Amino acid sequence: MSISQFDSELERSVLDSMVPRLEADGYRVVIHPKRDTLPTFLQEYQPDMVAYKDKKNLAFEIKARVSAAEQKERRLRERFAGHPDWELRFIYAPPVNSDADIPVVSKQTVSEHLDRLEASVDAMGLTGALLTGWAVFEAAARALLPSSLTRPQPPVRLIEMLASGGYVTPDEADMLRRLSRTRNEVAHGRLDIMPARDDVARLIAVTRSILEPAT
């Protein structure tokens, strides 16, 4: 399992962002696999995620960039020795407490950015509109829940907080989860992905609804 510095939702967000690429490459992906589904040599160690494909299987471990983990990494690599059909990959992610607080901007400022975004979707293109729209969406959520969102949040947690508080509907939450995966892929270089115009429009609409809830 992943090391203790990681928040479970951050870990899940990192793993979720990798799934579309692996599935597109033909892998069957399992996050947090059960021990009894793993080969014998792995049952004393539970990877954070495994991906199966013919004779090339992958195991993933999330870890921080800290020297204290080097000994554990060496032991894990030794476990995979002699199993050429398996490859261990480490995913480096920051500890949950590494991010500085983000100032909360006023709802008026968020609204002004939202207006500019809506007026310039065609000019900036759908990819740029999605990235900018997600930033405005996060700012709107932070303005709505300033005491809970002072630090950067994984998309999964942000969406769950809004859904559990009734600020977005279940259908809206499902749309946001799907769109967050697209946003993550685009932000990390998947330039072949083109967001749908309707999705960008729905992101803008949801952002307006949490910024200016109906009374």
Explain what you see.
- This protein has 215 residues and is of the alpha+beta class.
- It has two domains: 8-92, no CATH class; 107-211, Four Helix Bundle (Hemerythrin (Met), subunit A) (Up-down Bundle).
- The chain contains seven helices and four strands.
- A four-stranded mixed beta sheet has the order 1-2-3-4, with helices on both faces.
- Helix 3 (107-119) packs antiparallel against helix 4 (121-144) and helix 3 packs antiparallel against helix 7.
- It is elongated and about 60 Å long.
- The N and C termini lie far apart (45 Å).
- 25% of the residues are buried.
- Mean pLDDT is 82; it is low at 1-7.
Key phrases:
4 strands, disordered N terminus, 50% helix, single chain, 215 residues, 2 domains, Four Helix Bundle (Hemerythrin (Met), subunit A), four-stranded mixed sheet, 7 helices, alpha+beta
- How many runs of DSSP E, i.e. beta strands? 4
Annotated CATH topology of the largest domain: Four Helix Bundle (Hemerythrin (Met), subunit A)
Question: What structural category do the secondary elements indicate?
Answer: alpha+beta
Main beta-sheet strand count, sense and barrel state: 4 strands, mixed
Structure, briefly:
The protein has helices spanning 8-24, 70-80, 107-119, 121-144, 155-164, 170-187, 197-211, and strands spanning 28-31, 49-52, 57-63, 86-92.
